[in-house]
């Protein structure tokens, strides 16, 4: 562990938690065929692992959103950059997100989805940074409560990098990472030994 970064959620714990969530969703949606919608790009890693733990005839779809400026200034208004391929009318929708932070993006997305007449809309988020919530939001399926620090890995990026880090890292010194964006290279797949040995 360094003073810049530490592992907050290990890959084994992430895997176990996703198995549990998958079993719960399988039970809750018995006899139905939900559509799991991931918000690109962060949620795609979680979605890929989650669907292989859900024993239902589900389908998946993707949506890409772009915020007008930062979260606060945009007040959650987002532009749809890529829309769904399928009609969600009368479908059971599960929105799969990597992390819910202010909740502004997701609450906007939910209102868009609900306007299309689905049978139901629920949220499944791997991480819940509830300390930063601005828009109240019900998260039906939650992986972990997330500390109020910048996190990277397992789909979450720093400047579009490190989505392929298998563990989730907490960045305690963001200016140091901005100064040297290569600092997290030892956490990439297959580099674990150099982390363990402190190198
Ligand atoms: P919000 O809930 O509208 O504030 O936005 C949530 C989105 O911001 C997430 O889907 C992530 O893409 C991104 N995000 C929020 N917190 C973090 C973080 O700690 N690390 C990386 N991305 C984050
Ligand atoms: Mg995201």
Describe this structure in words.
The protein is an alpha/beta fold. Helices cover 27% and strands 28% of the residues. The protein is built from six helices and nine strands; from the N terminus they run βαβαβαββαββββαα. The strands form two sheets. It has a six-stranded mixed beta sheet, sandwiched between helices. Strand 2 (35-40), helix 2 (43-51) and strand 3 form a beta-alpha-beta unit. The relative contact order is 0.18.
Shape: globular
Distance between the termini: 10 Å
Strand arrangement, largest sheet? 4-3-2-5-6-7
* Oligomer description: single chain
Count of helical regions = 6
**Mean of residue pLDDT?**
92
Strand-residue proportion: 25-35%
Structural class: alpha/beta
Task: Indicate the percent of residues in helices.
Answer: 25-40%
- SSE topology string: EHEHEHEEHEEEEHH
User: What composes the largest sheet?
Assistant: 6 strands, mixed
Q: What is the number of E strands?
A: 9
Residue runs with pLDDT of under 50 for 5 or more positions: none
């Amino acid at each position: 562990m360094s003073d810049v970064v530490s592992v907050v959620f290990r890959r084994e714990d992430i895997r176990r938690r996703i198995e549990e969530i998958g079993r719960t969703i399988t039970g809750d949606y018995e006899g139905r065929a939900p559509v799991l919608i991931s918000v690109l790009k962060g949620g795609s890693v979680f979605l890929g692992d989650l669907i292989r733990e859900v024993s239902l005839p589900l389908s998946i779809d993707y949506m890409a959103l772009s915020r007008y400026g930062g979260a606060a200034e945009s007040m959650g208004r987002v532009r749809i950059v890529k829309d769904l391929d399928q009609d969600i009318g009368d479908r059971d929708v599960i929105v799969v997100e990597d992390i819910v932070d202010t909740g502004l993006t997701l609450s906007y997305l939910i209102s868009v989805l609900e306007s299309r007449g689905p049978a139901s809309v629920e949220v499944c988020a791997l991480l819940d940074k509830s300390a930063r919530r601005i828009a109240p939001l019900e998260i039906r399926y939650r992986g972990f409560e997330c500390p109020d620090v910048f996190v990277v890995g397992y789909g979450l990026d720093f400047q579009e990098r490190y989505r392929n880090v298998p563990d989730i890292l907490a960045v305690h010194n963001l200016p140091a990472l901005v100064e040297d964006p290569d600092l997290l290279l030892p956490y990439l797949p297959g580099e674990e030994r150099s982390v363990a040995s402190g190198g």
